[in-house]
Design goal:
2 domains; elongated; single chain; Glutaredoxin; 7 helices; 158 residues
Length: 158
């Protein structure tokens, strides 16, 4: 997914904000709607939200960066979350993360594939400790994993 142009972001933000009658208390919902449309929060969109709601840009950015559900970078078509919570970590989640990075050929420091097909996101806890170690792909949980199972799981989403 390419970077969103300022004009496109502004137009969509205007529509979303109007749908919430410009209420400042709807900031999180507005950001969720924008991210749903673009798969991330484009900078131009965040700036337009601040302008339309008459909020300091810093306040909007504070909300956008506080919640892990928001991304300021373009995400791939499929989101792969790797649980690194205690139970998953103890049962081998770091090896799963390594296997995912190898399978997707992700360079060190990169979390999204060049073709924008996958974004990998380490998370603190998915809430499936009894299935540790666990990953989710687009919200579907896969548990009791070993690194050798990763390629076949990811192949389903190609």
């Amino acid at each position: 997914m390419p970077v969103v142009e300022a004009e496109v972001a502004a137009k969509r933000v205007d529509e979303v904000v109007a749908g919430y009658d410009g209420r400042k208390g709807s900031l999180i919902h507005i950001l969720q709607d924008i991210q749903e449309d673009f798969a991330y929060l484009p900078r131009a969109g965040i700036e337009r939200v601040a302008e339309k709601l008459d909020l300091p840009l810093a306040d909007v950015l504070r909300v956008a960066t506080f919640y892990a559900a928001f991304s300021l970078e373009p995400r791939g078509e499929h989101l792969v979350s790797v649980c690194l919570g205690t139970a998953c970590h103890v049962k081998g989640a770091p090896r799963l993360l390594d296997a995912i990075r190898r399978t997707l050929r992700l360079e060190q420091g990169c979390w999204t594939t060049e073709d924008m097909k996958f974004t990998v996101k380490p998370v603190r806890c998915i809430g499936c400790c009894g299935l540790a170690p666990v990953i989710t792909v687009d919200g579907t949980a896969y548990g009791r994993l070993t690194p050798d199972k990763i390629p076949q799981i990811l192949k389903r989403y190609e």
